[in-house]
Design brief:
By secondary structure, this protein is mainly α. The chain is about 65% helix and about 5% strand. Strands 1-2 form a two-stranded antiparallel sheet.
């Protein structure tokens, strides 16, 4: 894994993506409670919209 001057982590040349993700996760401490809450605040509305869209799509295909 390479880290650029701005702190972004990138796979090493030729590094498998799964290996990169595994290395990245292992190098990071566990999420704090405030980080988890922040991620939930970001993704919860997106997931709710996705679930609603799937339900509407299934309902329309069932009606057809």
């Amino acid at each position: 894994m390479n880290v650029d001057p701005d702190g972004w982590c990138l796979p090493s040349e030729g590094q498998d993506i799964a290996a990169f993700i595994k290395e990245f996760v292992a190098s990071r401490p566990p999420l704090t409670a405030s980080e988890i809450a922040g991620l939930r605040a970001i993704f919860r509305p997106v997931l709710a919209a996705e679930v609603a869209q799937r339900a509407a799509s299934e309902a329309s295909s069932d009606a057809a």
